[in-house]
Amino acid sequence: MQCAMTTNSTSSINSLTITRPDDWHLHLRDAEVLASVLPHTAKQFARAIVMPNLKPPVTTTAQALAYRERILAALPDGMQFEPLMTLYLTNNTTPDEIRRAKASGLIHAVKLYPAGATTNSDAGVTDLRLCYPTLEAMQECGMPFLVHGEVTDPSIDLFDREAVFIERVMQPLRADMPELKVVFEHITTSQAADYVRTASGPIAATITAHHLLYNRNDIFKGGIRPHYYCLPVLKRETHRQALLAAAISGSPRFFLGTDSAPHAKGAKEAACGCAGCYTALHAMELYAQAFDQAGALDKLNDFASVFGPAFYQLPVNSGMLTLERTSWTMPAELALANETVVPLNAGETLQWKVI
Ligand code: NCD
Ligand code: ZN
């Protein structure tokens, strides 16, 4: 791990109590996998923006509301958790569907997957211009647009796809729809952090814990490490530092989104392994570690619990969450339906623990 900022470590702080946080970008999947992963998230987070990239994707209000019921039914007795539902934008999503989603009061955003960009994105958008009437409806009713910000042009180097997306897609889109509320999801580059920090209009970004802690060397440390492979892929160290600076900057435009994405062990440890890191069990521990290394534990509360609700115009949670500086070991594997998932940091010692 890169510890460039350990000299600032807030190492005298041994306990941290923050407002109960929310996860503004999460994959819960469905059925038995949902039942396996949901308790991990519900233990830490009061609410989560639930990604719609199921097979088949969640494209209608009716499907999203039915999915919400399945999530609530999978929640163990005594746990409190509110799923904030999203729709998966396709070339065929209608403006009426957006208005129905908004009127439900339970659907909080619409997600853009450029077709082919990531896991279960085949039904995604092939040309954003086809969606302009629908995006106009979103702009009009204040429905946030969550953007997987990578071009899919195979001639663009994988590591450059986010930066190129800003020029080719994000800037033209926001010039045409200046009032559309946009979240640049799971940003991974200094270019994205700079864009979100300086652009005008309603824009924000989510940042994962793994992009704050790791760089692309971690994917290749001593061999190929598939559990560090996600999309957008980890970038070089300078980008990690830019993301960390954004996360601790105190700007309300940057907030927490884990992008925890469970894939069964065999689907990751394969000749063509799936993209996605599983962090739901230990998300707040990882964020605490990143903020601690940067000497910025005092900035974690706003990033994790205040700036997200402000962007989504939702109340801040009333409960609290306490983290303690305690060493503990991540299990090597966790149950995932009738298989297992290898979490990020499997078998490693972590320094913070949610109590
Ligand atoms: C996500 C997944 O597995 O659904 N994978 C990932 O690498 N982040 C999809 C996504 O958010 O891109
Ligand atoms: Zn995701």
Q: Features of this protein?
A:
355 residues; TIM Barrel; eight-stranded parallel β-sheet; 11 helices; globular; disordered N terminus; binds N-carbamoyl-L-aspartate; binds zinc ion
Give a structural overview.
- The chain has a single domain (21-317), classed as Metal-dependent hydrolases (TIM Barrel), CATH 3.20.20.140.
- It is 33% helix and 17% strand.
- The protein starts with 14 loop residues before the first strand and ends with a strand.
- Mean pLDDT is 96; it is low at 1-8.
- An eight-stranded parallel β-sheet has the order 2-3-4-5-6-7-8-9. Strands 1-10-13 form a three-stranded antiparallel β-sheet. The protein has a two-stranded antiparallel sheet with strand order 11-12.
- By secondary structure, the protein is α/β, with parallel strands linked by helices.
- Helix 3 runs parallel beside helix 4.
- Bound molecules: N-carbamoyl-L-aspartate and zinc ion.
- Zinc ion is lined by residues 25, 27, 51, 259, 261.
